[in-house]
Amino acid sequence: MSKKRVLSGIQPTHDSFHLGNYLGALKQWVELQHDHDAFYCVVDLHALTIETDPKVLQKRILLSAAQLIAIGVDPSKCTLFIQSHVPAHNQLAWVLECITGFGEAGRMTQFKDKSQKGGTDRTNVGLFTYPILQAADILLYQADFVPVGEDQRQHIELTRDLGQRFNSKFNEIFNIPQPQIIKSLAKINDLQDPTAKMSKSASSMAGVIELLDSPEVTLKKFKSSVTDDGKEVKFDEKSKPGISNLLTIHSALSGKSIQDLEGEFSGKGYGDFKAAVAEVVISKLEPIGKRTKELMDDQGELIRILNKGAARANEVATATLKAVYSAIGLV
Ligand code: AMP
Ligand code: TRP
User: Fold this and answer.
1) Does residue 196 lie in a domain region?
2) Given CB 3.0 to 4.6 Å as the disulfide criterion, which of 89, 130, 180, 252 pairs with 147?
């Protein structure tokens, strides 16, 4: 039986990914590449919806690819590429835009949130068509599964609707993908505000653990993390959101169960526990930081890897696009 195909993408909107990205999504990418035909892309075109200095953007695209490799996305096991290296993404997106209703696109909650925050003058049309480009990313590769966080569920639903609509209007060209919402570790919270999701849009970075933070910075962020009343290390999201978040992080990285961790730290104070969580995190992140730096110092090698990924991605994507163009009557 041939392997199931997965596709996922991540935006290069920051210098460093954070622990929420890693535990919520990227760790799963690494696991899936072993028994799936995996396509992973750095979605640089999506990142254009946020105005960024060109030099900064360029660095972030390379840093994103380097970090993916550093966390274990293995270019010899999967297809790792940069979205803009495959022109078929834009080409299919246009075709899909022409079968998407204006109201349908307007109902996307992420667009509604972002455009409400920014106001119409600061909202570009790219933000409006963003989910349709995402649908093109997925449908081009005939993906079976799309591993993403819960926040992307609606975009995957739209992808399915557009794929089905195209298939019934024209020809059965697209495989209709399933979302693979990452459940067990779906949410890592901010260390300073443990009732809110860890996010780069947080008002302060003090509670956001970046993969490329130095060990000193990581230790400091854990030491000053917000804990809760009482002094017991117990998992209880309602009354102990801080400690529960730290337990989730430790468990996700060490592989120990929450229950075992509660036992291990019973009778010890919050201080010891925080130091232990920091140690687990640092021992995971330090090699990631080193490997990322090596790749950034040898960009020739990095670009060679990405060119190889793009060649493979282009093969698959071009074949799908050709079938689409033919089905809709382009000559
Ligand atoms: P973003 O950087 O918000 O675009 O997220 C990239 C990926 O990481 C998406 O699949 C998100 O669902 C996931 N993600 C982002 N923040 C978190 C978090 N705090 N906990 C778990 N997953 C997250
Ligand atoms: N919108 C996704 C996010 O913000 C990123 C993305 C773009 C994506 N294209 C994709 C994710 C295709 C999965 C598949 O996380």
Assistant:
1) no
2) 180
Mean pLDDT of 84-88: 98
Question: Does 302 lie in the same domain as 287?
Answer: no
Pocket of ligand 1 (CB under 6 A): 10-11, 20-21, 24-25, 148-149, 151-152, 186-188, 197-199
pLDDT in tens, 293-322: 999 999 999 999 999 999 999 999 999 999
Residue 268 a catalytic site member: no
Domain total of the chain: 2
**Catalytic residue (one of 27, 197, 220, 234):** 197
Residue-range definition of the domain harbouring residue 251: 205-292
Name the phi and psi angles at 2, rounded to 5.
Answer: -75, 155
- Evaluate whether 96 touches 166 at the Cβ level (below 8 Å): yes
> Of all helices (H) and strands (E), which one includes residue 216?
helix 215-223
pLDDT (mean) for 164-192: 89
Same domain, yes or no: 167 and 237: no
55, 15 in Cβ contact below 8 A? no
Q: Are residues 85 and 24 in the same domain?
A: yes
Q: Indicate whether 11 and 154 sit together in one domain.
A: yes
Neighbours of 21 (CB within 10 A): 23
Beta carbons of 93 and 326 less than 8 angstroms apart: no
Confidence band for 149, pLDDT divided at 50, 70 and 90: confident
Averaged pLDDT, 44-73: 97
Ligand nearest to the CA of 108: 2
Instruction: Please check whether residues 38 and 176 belong to one and the same domain.
Output: yes
Polymer length of the chain: 331
Confidence of residue 184 (pLDDT cuts 50, 70, 90): low
Pair (246, 288) in one structural domain: yes
The residue contributing the CA closest to ligand 1 atom 11 is 149
Measure the CA–CA gap between 180 and 34, rounded to whole angstroms. 16
The confidence score (pLDDT) of residue 200 equals: 86
* CA dist., res. 170 & res. 164, Å (int): 10
Record the tokens describing residue 218, joined without a space: 């990581």
Q: Give CA separation, 60 vs 47, 67, 174, 217, in Å.
A: 10, 10, 32, 21
